[in-house]
Amino acid sequence: MTPNIIDISIASIEVLNPRVRNRKVFEELVESIRAVGLKRPIMVRRSPIGQGFELICGQGRMEAFVKLGATAIPAIVIEATRDECYVMSLVENMARRNLSPLELIREVGVLRQRGYSHTEISRKVGFSPEYVWTINFLLEKGEERLLDSVERGVIPHTIAAEIARADDAQVQRALTEAYEAGSLPGAQVLAIRRIVDQRNLIGKGIKSVRSGPKRSQPTTAAALVRAYQKEVERQRLLVKKATLTEGRLTFIVSAMGKLLADEHFVTLLRAEGLASLPHPVAQRLGIAGDPT
Fold first, then answer.
1. 153 and 231 fall within a common domain
2. Domain of 202?
3. Distant-in-sequence, close-in-space partners of 205: CB < 8 Å, separation ≥ 6
4. pLDDT 10s digits, 218-253
């Protein structure tokens, strides 16, 4: 069903989840709309109070229209609750290529603040419940520097959580013990030390925030090693899963190719009105998308 697109007044739209735009990307968007017009309407819902609308997706497009002097913009009007609107907005923003790691994890934190459980958030954003829990734990502690290191792949999220729970002396002692025992690779120990030093010198946040309470149980070398081994095992399982999936896909593509070479099978497809394939499948088979 084709969505109903209407022109609505920009002045009547409230932005539910405002974003700070990347200036260069925004200027490129303005020039694109100036040259070829709006490719995709914004999405809104009717305001539960008053006669206006609430923006779900398309803040950048709407702001570009304003800069170009427009007073109205094409929009798709849907029916949804405010929480549903927020999640849709979140999903679109997570799909933006210029979304920074810290922006992404802050979005996860906001979902938690809105009452979603770690399991619900993991389903919505595609992270594991454990990873979502760690992100929210670090956010609650104000550990933006550790979060940034996790997202850049410098340290596993499990080790970041251990660092956040401990004081500096506990972390340094645990690292020394782990290194001397050969339980952690030297490069990993150096990376963690560097992060801890920066955290102590500059602060927890990218913009420093006050620290939260420390836990009573000390972080030990064994705890860091367990966290590291847990991350290694998680990565190993991901590789195993990816290899298994690749094998299954290869088998499916091979089987489909043999079936499409069978004239009787193709005749059956025509009789059932199945005259085309999904583009990715057709591409893997090296055909134009029409098996018949």
1. yes
2. 148-240
3. 142, 143, 144, 145
4. 555 555 556 666 666 777 777 888 888 878 878 887
